Amino acid sequence: MGRHFTEFITADEHGHLGIEQREASALANEFGTPLYVISEGQIRHNVRAITRAFRGRYPRTEILFSNKANNNPAIRRVFNQEGAGGDCFGYGELYLSLLAGTDPDKLMLNGSNKAEPELAMAVEAGVTINLDVFEELQAVAAIARRLGTRARVNVRTRLGLHEMDAAATGHRAGVRRPGRRHHGAGDPTRRDRPLPYPTPPAAGRGRAFGTEAAADRRSRLRPKAQR
């Protein structure tokens, strides 16, 4: 008698591994080894199940695939077809997501060391950017002003759980975690020196605990030159 490991990954009564009704040994003979096989059916099933589970309680939930898990464009297209967005860390992940036709409205650019090229790509494509430090706001505003467009931003904050910082991140105390400190983060432009442009509208907020973040909402930022 066989067994099911998942909905699409099985083993028959002889212990032969099967993937979507194909024996793994047959696939290895056909394509050679080492061979990496991904079940499209399993991906679709998982995305639908997760979406149903969250939207049953939170109807506005959007599922964002962590692109670092597998940056194969063919896999990315399957997620696109199932309506999933994407969490992009850096230029490469953002570029491949856009190349695969992912809806920019469902992409989020993350990373504590964002550089100008990926920020510019995100602004131009209309991808939401998680802001971790004040300098990123300045950079994004300058890019948006140069391109004559709007930048979509989310301000990522981190809770002041000082004694838990090391446990949450796995690092020793004092190591910087992504996100602005929550105190004073309601206005992302709050700073001792003024900005060279009017204060932008309030941005969305997210929470960072360890290396995780959950965006509460999104908004648009249109910086304008001071007159």
Strand-helix topology:
Elements (H helix, E strand, L loop, with lengths): L2 E2 L4 E3 L5 E3 L2 E2 H8 L8 H16 L8 E3 L6 H9 L3 E5 H10 L7 E4 L5 H10 L2 E4 L2 H14 L3 E8 L6 H5 L10 E2 L22 E6 L2 E4 L3 E3 L6
Parallel strand pairs: 5-6, 6-7, 7-8, 8-9, 9-10, 9-11
Antiparallel strand pairs: 1-2, 2-3, 3-4, 9-13, 11-12
What descriptors fit this protein?
227 residues; alpha/beta; TIM Barrel; 4-stranded antiparallel β-sheet; 7 helices; 32% helix; elongated; disordered C terminus
Short description, anyone?
The chain has 227 residues and is an alpha/beta fold. Helices cover 32% and strands 22% of the residues.
Q: What's the helix-strand series?
A: EEEEHHEHEHEHEHEHEEEE
Helix fraction by DSSP (H/I, runs of at least 4): 25-40%
The CA-CA distance between the termini, in Å, is: 77 Å
The computed structural class is alpha/beta
CATH C-level class is: Alpha Beta
Relative strand content: 15-25%
| Continuous helix count | 7
CATH superfamily: Alanine racemase
Query: What is the count of β-strands?
Result: 13
Any idea how many domains?
Answer: 1
Shape: elongated
